[in-house]
Amino acid sequence: MFVDLSQDQIAELNENSIWIIMDPWENQEELFPFWVPENLGPGELNDWNSTYMKKIIEYLPNMKYPLVVTTEIDKSPDVLQNLPYVQHYPNKAGPFIVEKYMNKYNLKHIIYSGFHEQECIINRRTGYKNMSSLGIECYICKDLTCAYPVEGWAKVVNSQRLSPYYRYFNLI
To answer: Least packed by Cβ within 10 Å: which of 42, 50, 54, 126?
Structure first.
């Protein structure tokens, strides 16, 4: 469900939150060709992702505590490669490392951005479902989160955005 936050509330949330930038690969089609949806042609997934990547990079200076979560940090844009990051594999310690980072800075919330809304952002071990089950208040920044454009994606995402289990907000 969407929560209506004022600019002051967003600023306060930013002060007390880790921003997880999930799976920001520059060329997902080359890195994981088997994850390219069948309904897309060559280059379309990377173009789709690129729109949101640009928004994330543009907003990055405003993120007080960014953390990249990915399998291959070297496949992310250069500006993200210098940020703290957590790998998904091999030891699946991601949630522990995220909590440790949060404790280090006395952070109370997680804000998700990145790729892809109804897949990795929700379902990864460092994703919304698992981290919220640990008692952490989580949010998804809709403006900086890209849906996975598989066939029927809009219905799934719209349902998810209406669900009381997920908190969304817009920056503007």
So the answer is: 42
Give the C-alpha separation, 130 to 108, whole Å. 15
Q: Compute the distance between CA of residue 89 and CA of residue 71 in angstroms, rounded to an integer.
A: 7
pTM for this predicted structure: 0.95
Report if residue 27 sits inside a domain. yes
In total, how many domains does the chain have? 1
Question: Is the CB of residue 117 less than 8 Å from the CB of residue 143?
Answer: no
CA distance 62 to 17: 12
Quick one: how far is CA 73 from the chain centroid?
A: 14
Residue type (1 letter), 102: M
- The CATH number covering residue 141 comes to 3.40.50.850
In the numeric block, the tokens 């698992």 are attached to: 130
Does residue 136 form part of some domain? yes
Q: Taking a C-beta distance cutoff of 8 angstroms, is the pair 99, 138 a contact? A: no
> Taking the CA atoms of the chain, what radius of gyration do you get in angstroms?
15
SS3 of residue 97 by DSSP: helix
The model's pLDDT over 113-163, given as tens digits with 9 standing for 90+, comes to 999 999 999 999 999 999 999 999 999 999 999 999 999 999 999 999 999
